[in-house]
Amino acid sequence: MDQASDLRRRVAERTRTGGHIDMRTLAVTSGKGGVGKSNLAVNIALAIQEEGANALVLDADVGFANVDVLLGRRSERTIVDLVQPGVRPEDVVQRGPLGMRWISGGTALTHWVHMSKEQAGACFDKLRDLESDVDWVIVDTGAGLNEASLHILGVVDDILLVTTPEPTALADAYALIKVVVRRLPGVCIRLVVNRCRSFAEGLETSNRLTSVCQAFLSYEPAVAGYILEDPALGQAVQRQIPVLVGTPNSRASQCIRQIARRVMGRSDAQPERPLGSARSGWREFVWKLQHAFGRG
Ligand SMILES: Nc1ncnc2c1ncn2[C@@H]1O[C@H](COP(=O)(O)OP(=O)(O)OP(=O)(O)O)[C@@H](O)[C@H]1O
Ligand SMILES: [Mg+2]
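Above are the sequence and the adenosine-5'-triphosphate SMILES. Below is the predicted complex in C-alpha cell form.
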C-alpha cells in the first residue's frame, strides 16, 4: 500500500471509529514513591511531541497528583468536572508545552467512589466523545499497589516501571512486579532505572532485578532505559519548567528522549522485546477504563 492510500485509509478509519486507531497507551508506575514517575510521564510526553506525534498525559495519581505542579499550571478543570452539565470533554483537556495535552484527574478521582453509577457513566460517555487525534496516552499512576492503579495497569498496552538503584526501591519494584504478573498474565512491563550515577550502575540494577524476576516469577521484564542523576531535573521541578523544555540538552533530557524513542520503536537500539501488538483507539481505551473501574 502506498503512503497516500495508507493515509486515506487511516483518515477514513479515524472518522468511522471517532478516534485514532493507532493510539498506544502507557502507564508510568513504581513500587516506591518519589522515584521520578511524574517527571518521566510529563517529559516522555514532551519527547513524543518532539518526535512529531501527539501525546496526552492523564494524571491518575489519586494520592499526590502533581503533573500540574511540574508544568507550572493550575488545573482549571479535572476529569470529574465532566459530571456537570455544560462541561464538554474538550474543557478538561489542557495544553502544555510543545502542544502536549494533559487531563487532571488525581485527587479528584476519589470523588468517583461517591458518584452514582449514572453520574460516573455520564463522565465516561463525555470523555469517550473527545475528538481525539492522540497517538500516545501516558497515565501517571500513584506509587505502590492500590486497586485504582491495578485497574489502570490492566487496561494499558505497556507499563513503564520506574525504580532507582536504591535497595528499597528495588525491593518495592520487585513486590509490584510479583503482584502485577500474577493479577495480569501477559502483561508487558518495561523497567526504567532512574537516578543512576552511571549507565553501568543502571545496567547492573536492571540486571539484578530481571534475574530475580526470572528466578522467582519466571517472568522477565524488558528494559526501557536509564536516566542519569542530574541536578537539572531537580532544578526543573523547582522552576516548574519540565527539564526537556528548560534544559533540553541536559543529561536527563537526553536519557528521557532515548527512552521515548525506544518505547516508540524509533531507537537504533532494538527493543529487547518487540512492541506489543495490542492497539486501541481513544473510545476503546475509555470504555476499558470505565469497565475496569466497574462503572460500565
Ligand atoms: N534523574 C534525576 N536526577 C535528579 N533528581 C531527580 C531525578 N529524578 C527525580 N529526581 C528528584 O525526585 C523528585 C521526585 O520526582 P517525581 O515527582 O517525578 O517522583 P514520583 O515518583 O512521581 O513521586 P510520587 O510517588 O510522590 O508521585 C523530583 O522532584 C526530583 O527532585
Ligand atoms: Mg508523582
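Residues 30, 33-39, 61, 64, 143, 194-195, 227, 229-230, 233-234, 237, 252 surround adenosine-5'-triphosphate (ligand 1) (CB under 6 Å).
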